[in-house]
């Protein structure tokens, strides 16, 4: 008995031809979370539109899009650390801080506005980068590090805006919270938005276009870079990522910076939408907590490694659509928090049902 | 014997963790175009040596010379860039990423700076094909693959980095025999292409089949390096443990088959178990053989109450039982114990103390109502440490400070403290040094002498042959054959494992 | 078989055990806060109120509410979970206690907390919903229930005499009863964590639930009990707080969640579970309470407090809460 070299008889049966269908169904299964959230959103939104007394109008669509935008971005921000099996409890605070900065800076000449926008974006990214530094170089758990930095960011926001107020450029505010036609009209583009080629798209709300742009120009390139891939790898198994020689520190810094950037964009929009800045601590907390809910509804695992910011955006849309529905069904405002809580619990508990299908109880633990 | 020039050499390397010397003043070199086996008990310093070479840890003293030039590796990627690639015993794959992502992880094919997923898939397919794993879809998630397939992905990943020195640390321990065969062929091919290969294994027959040169380590020292065939198997084992060993396995008692303690009838679960029938009595060690992944692990888990939706009957001491959880299984009329597959994630809580781990399964025996009895707990822990000869500094140290063999002893101690009747062992000697293996064999025999019944799954046929009173060989979730007494031979086990039709000379079973 | 020889025993000199370090450092920081605060008052007012026993006792009395919340929360955090439902569990308990009134007020309040905790435990243990999300949902549900119950206004009912006695009175005019309640809760938690099979199981699950399950520990039950304990502690804190302010009011629990988490973590408990001593949590609570009071003595505005608060948490953790470097 010197060797275990065996005739490969038992092996052949295992080999099967590779089919395209197999790949497709694999992808389908791997994105089941997002698809589920998308289906849920469509059902809820359709229900909302059908039961809306005024039916589907552009105005309602714009209003909905405006209400979704900030939460969608904060949820996308939350996604990035969650993919690394961390949490960022400062996303709401970063959003608030950048909102307060915006309420000071987004006004005046086009040049000043552009500079102001750049400053806001930089501030958001810088907050995220600071989080990343504390996590990477301080080696403090993300959840607790960002809990602490969120207090700091809120403090700065309170210094900037002790009371709600400030103002932003009105045209810009109007332009980004309307549809495409108004946007073009405000800035004298495309024959004031009357260009014939524009008409098929003229009804699309600007916030939705901005969301699409952010995903296409920031998120997609990110996940297709080595840094983005490393973020997923860290969430899946950090020690394995280290063993594989991946740039872990760089990826962590990039992830938190990106989270700050997204949250900052959310804050910028919120300031434009409300034309003011407001260092509201409960509101920041609510955004942070809702962002976690949106991330989970969007199919991203809190344990890291799987999910996508696109899913979280859809998750945010689901959350907002739930409250739209409350509005038109005239649920007593007092009961709304109760229903919101119940819907959230029901949605996440449904996931618990899949436990019943688990035949190996060890799969429960990871 | 022609000595090729060393490709990579370590000079006077020392490394210690706290007060423990993992390596002392080690000189070591390996050459191109050879497969160099590194042998030694767990805790002998092999793993540390590999980690230093791969840049995972840094030596306290000494220097490394690669192709004549001194080098240092502050991290694994530095070693990778120098062409040194390691396949570690603990898998280094990301379970949530796809196979293709994993294989090309550190340097994916890029287009315009972004990862080119099509090229990445093509590249993974090629690498997988090189090790004969065309059946693995590069788009599946690693977590959806069985352990043996993951190990092959790991190997493909290492190959993809174009190594000059490939280090395999127990890389075949999770593989099926057919895959082991492919890995061998791959290694010979790499050797022919002038790569340097370091091979760590506890399986003597693998080393005999593969290696050109062997180096033995003991207690952090490099004891001896010799060419293949220069030493006999017994001599090698003697070098590893520093003393001669007599018979590896304790003698099997010859006696009639005892009355059945556990009777399994028609046990089925999903498509993995298809009507298992098995009996075992007190004083018996019943082996579970067969290729990896034929339902052996599932059988043990089903008996231990971990699986849901198990059909069939299990009778313990004449009474039908159906354990619904490990808690029920360990506290039934006949107590069961399971030494699980992965001691690091399932058997032990690495960060907790040795004492806490030993007491973990018998908390209810060591307490009055809900309060622990510290005196009784300490006594039980001391007794267990003594009974199993666990080498420890202090029982309050974390169990992670122990070597692999001693860790496995802690797992055994944990379950022996519950005084079990039926002991389920899932490959308990995997990745464990020879000395500890022998202790475990002796312990198993001693336990059966005291009236326990052991179901023993092992991937090592030698163990099954040496230890078991009977061997049930499994194939595709069924027991295809039960071997007994002299019929337990490697030939019979392999023939049944492959489910090859009965051959005349083994028909007497 | 005599292969004992060279197993080296790590020398244990006077070096702090890793578990002691947070306690020592946090305690040192408490002293630092007192020193800085006293320096400030000596400079501005020429007196040192911070060092007067009755002032410290007063602070501890106020701190007992936070301390009780943190005690319960720590049990859950040791499991590697978290209980975000604390704010409205606390508020609901307070509101129900005042609404029920009479001798059943306190049991009713604690029972509400226990009930919320049990539902949390069921969701987290049996449905395996991440605790972060499930307790968040429960917080919203409790908030919804209370808002619906009170119509969004502060309830008109008042705390019973017994509640006020527990929260406000002092035995012999010196020792606050609330402090004793905190002490009793602390003793109970220490007993649970160190002397019971439940405590062992909690640490085991926090470290590696899979191994704990395979060791025959009923992990679901342990998780359920831990959440129930946390809920009950929040309920008790709510009852006391209602007694302290003589009534229950909307949002009375909002100020307790984050400080409680901070206190537990500053005390050296690993936020990912499995590690931590109750003594640390105790010191952590005292640190937070004193920090708050010193900041208010120094009349630091809310903005500055937030910033200092964040910096303190980070700097404390930089000293001893750093994770291991990732490697093999």
Automatic annotation (TrEMBL), chain A:
Keywords: Cell membrane, Membrane, Transmembrane, Transmembrane helix. Its main location: membrane. This is Ribose transport system permease protein. GO terms for cellular component: plasma membrane. It is a multi-pass membrane protein. The chain crosses the membrane at residues 28-48, 68-87, 113-136, 143-160, 201-220, 253-272, 284-303. The keyword Membrane applies. It is found in: Cell membrane. One of its GO terms (molecular function) is transmembrane transporter activity. InterPro entries: ABC_transp_permease (IPR001851).
UniProtKB/TrEMBL annotation, chain B:
It comes from the Bacteria. Keywords: ATP-binding, Nucleotide-binding, Repeat, Sugar transport, Transport. InterPro entries: AAA+_ATPase (IPR003593), ABC_carbohydrate_import_ATPase (IPR050107), ABC_transporter-like_ATP-bd (IPR003439), ABC_transporter-like_CS (IPR017871), P-loop_NTPase (IPR027417). SMART domains: AAA. The keyword Transport applies. Residues 8-244, 256-501 form the ABC transporter domain. Belongs to the ABC transporter superfamily. This is Ribose transport system ATP-binding protein. The lineage of its organism: Bacteria, Pseudomonadati, Pseudomonadota, Alphaproteobacteria, Hyphomicrobiales.
UniProtKB/TrEMBL annotation, chain C:
One of its GO terms (cellular component) is plasma membrane. InterPro entries: ABC_transp_permease. Keywords: Cell inner membrane, Cell membrane, Membrane, Transmembrane, Transmembrane helix, Transport. GO terms for molecular function: transmembrane transporter activity. It comes from the Bacteria. The keyword Membrane applies. CDD domains: TM_PBP1_transp_AraH_like. The keyword Membrane applies. It is a multi-pass membrane protein. It is found in: Cell membrane. The chain crosses the membrane at residues 23-43, 64-84, 104-126, 174-201, 222-244, 256-272, 279-300, 306-323. This is Ribose transport system permease protein. It comes from Microvirga lupini. The lineage of its organism: Bacteria, Pseudomonadati, Pseudomonadota, Alphaproteobacteria, Hyphomicrobiales.
